[in-house]
Amino acid sequence: MTPEALREHFPHTEHQTYLNHAAVSPMSRPVREAIDTYVSERHGADPEAPVENFESFFPMMEETKERLATVLGTSAARVEFVPNTSAGLNVLARGLDWEEGDRIAVPDGAFPTNVYPFLNLEPEGVEVDFVPTEEGAYTVDEVEDALGPETRLLSVSWVHFLSGFRADLEALGALCDEHDVLFCVDAIQGLGALQVDVEAMGIDFLTAGGHKWLMAAQGIGVLYCDEALQDDLRPPTGWLHGPVDWEHLDDYELTFHEDARRFRTGTLNSVGIAALHAALGLYLDAGPEWCEERVLRLSTILADELSDRGLSRYGTDDPAHASGIVTVAPDAPEALFEHLKEHGITGAVRNRNLRLAPTYYNDQSDLRAVLRALDAFETP
Fold first, then answer.
1. If both were cysteines, with which of 22, 163, 191, 370 could 187 make a disulfide (CB 3.0 to 4.6 Å apart)?
2. Three-state DSSP class for 310?
3. Run means of pLDDT, 10 residues per run, the chain, 380 residues
4. Phi, psi of 91 (to 5 degrees)
5. How far apart are CA 138 and CA 278, in angstroms?
6. What is the reported pTM?
């Protein structure tokens, strides 16, 4: 697939420059078509379409899990759907058998999603230790300094939501293995833009929502759980966490699936899964390696051009920790945000910084549009 053909799947590019993929992404034509197809079927207008498609939808669900497994570097048995990143992290936070005095290490300045599920364990005597960071950045040594004999879990954001700092997951995974600490990753700001291999990197638990860089829909996400950790987690319950005996539904035998399906409590967001299926198909067709290279190239060019215009970057410019997020600290962030908006450019203001986040369907014309608008901006 050529970059031009890929871009044609995103009709918004004809009239706006969208650089806010770190918040919520536009849907491609394949994603919209997948949603329309599912909704049309459930609508019942087609006499041949099954309105009640609970079981007929299973093959698409399984194929979506296979695609997720390919992207994550694992098997489909280790993958399950969740509504969002927070729900995934709560599977881990509420599933472990915590003891008073246990500790959890989390880099400070993380998005609240990766903090509150663990702070909520304080009534059980679990303490959170914050790894000191500078504008989202930290070293592996600083993480090691925060680990102690009582540390059971390290939970990090793959990519910092504001600075774009990309954690060295492989090094952190090795560190956790050395210290016998569980390793959890909030992957929402990287998955779909950068490459990951959960097994090679020693990740025990990973979760992400599908509406940012995966470019699917809101309300659908994924979790990965290592098989050894799965056995130590108490799953949430509903009615789909184990095999269903349709003829004896009231026998109430609490049995869990042997794979990650045990974390499935009830009816899933089928519309969201259809969207995720299509989004992953487009991503895999484009090629994860190519997508990562393009995201990093575009974000690097953008960061350099912004620096040349005197805009101070928030976060590190170390290529080893680069991602798709470029954040700057202008004198008047809100005014600059509105100025860009008037020029058809969508970014975001977070913590009084301007954040821009291009992805792989963006191109040089999008960057030129931003730079032209910036050159025309006068600080109030």
1. 191
2. coil
3. 92 97 98 94 78 85 98 98 98 97 97 98 97 97 98 98 98 98 98 98 98 98 97 94 91 94 95 98 98 98 96 94 97 95 96 97 97 89
4. -60, -40
5. 36
6. 0.96
* Nearest of 99, 366, 91, 116 to residue 208 by alpha carbon: 91
> Does residue 5 contact residue 340 with C-beta atoms inside 8 Å?
no
Measured CA to CA in angstroms, residue 339 lies from 18, 378, 380 at distances of 14, 9, 11
For residues 162 and 136, the answer to whether their CB atoms sit within 8 Å is yes
Rounded to 5 degrees, what angle do the CA atoms 244, 248, 252 make? Answer: 75
In order of 136, 160, 198, 247, 355, the CA distances from 328 in angstroms are 13, 14, 31, 60, 7
Tell me, what amino acid is at 7? R
Report all structural domains of the chain as residue ranges with CATH numbers, in order of start.
3-27+287-373 (3.90.1150.10), 37-284 (3.40.640.10)
Question: Within its chain, how far is the Cα of 181 from the centroid?
Answer: 22
CA angle 271, 275, 280 (to 5 degrees): 145
Two tokens, residue 84: 């969002």
* Terminal-residue alpha carbon distance, the chain: 44
* Of 163, 104, 148, residue with least CA distance to 128: 104
φ, ψ of residue 328 to 5 degrees: the values are: -125, 160
